[in-house]
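[Meeting: bench + compute handoff]

Bench side (C.D.) handed over the final construct sequence. Compute side (W.E.) agreed to return the predicted structure before the next meeting so the bench team could plan truncations. Sequence as handed over:
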Amino acid sequence: MWVGDEGEVEEHFLGLMKMRACKAADFVKAVLQFCDDKALSINLIRFLAFDGCSTISGSKSAK
């Protein structure tokens, strides 16, 4: 997602990843590999969306 020259928001769907494991380190590794495969610079990423799962959001279980 970025803001164009005239202030309009632009966003593009990049793809989906099939996860074999769901720990935070697995997500980081998958995102880094995805960016590398698509020749995207991780240093230019400014937005990250997630569905609220505790692994990504850093939430802790109330158990």
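W.E. noted at the follow-up: Residues 14-57 form one domain. C.D. will use this when planning the next construct.
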